[in-house]
Design brief:
The protein is of the alpha+beta class. It has four helices and four strands; from the N terminus they run αβαββαβα.
Length: 168
């Protein structure tokens, strides 16, 4: 009998199989085990010592909102553009914003309700019926903003909208 011993490495197909097995099974398994050990013994204790553990975020919400003066909502873009042009001719800046299939005419965004009401009253005196949409700012996004920074943020948004109106 010629073949009395089993030697897997000498067969041509088995050499490729062993190479693939080592590369795609053993090597990744070894890397996962070593990575988990390093994470458990070195990284996690270092993070706990240097940061004092995991703490809850400090969420402070003071009820800051912003107010959007809106002159109309249309399903037809041409009607929205006509009203926007009419408002612009009377000295106010407006922008048409496409919201899904609706076209909203936005006059301005304010951080104070009194300013938005003043703008609405001025437009009402000219014959335009406007509404004020109060937008509640999600405290999770602005947890460390104080009222001063929030107002600066809202004024920045308002100036961006005004720049877009000037471009049109």
């Amino acid at each position: 009998m010629k073949y009395t011993r089993v030697d897997i490495t000498k067969r041509e197909g088995n050499v490729n199989f062993l190479l693939w097995f080592k590369f795609f099974i053993l090597l990744p398994l070894l890397a996962i085990i070593i990575g988990a050990g390093i994470s458990k013994k070195i990284i996690t204790p270092w993070i706990k010592n240097n940061t004092g553990g995991v703490s809850q975020p400090n969420i402070k919400y003071d009820g800051t909102n912003f107010y959007v003066v809106q002159a109309g909502v249309f399903t037809n873009e041409n009607n929205a553009r006509l009203l926007s042009g009419s408002i612009n001719e009377n000295g106010f800046k407006s922008i048409v914003i496409c919201d899904k299939s609706l076209y909203r005419i936005i006059i301005n965004i304010f951080s104070e309700k009194s300013k938005s009401e003043e703008t609405r009253n001025n437009l009402k005196a000219l014959g335009y019926d406007c509404i004020i949409n109060e937008v509640d700012i999600n405290s999770l996004y602005f947890q460390n903003f104080d009222k001063k920074h929030m107002n600066q943020y809202i004024n920045l948004i308002s100036s961006i909208i005004n720049l877009q109106v000037n471009i049109w």
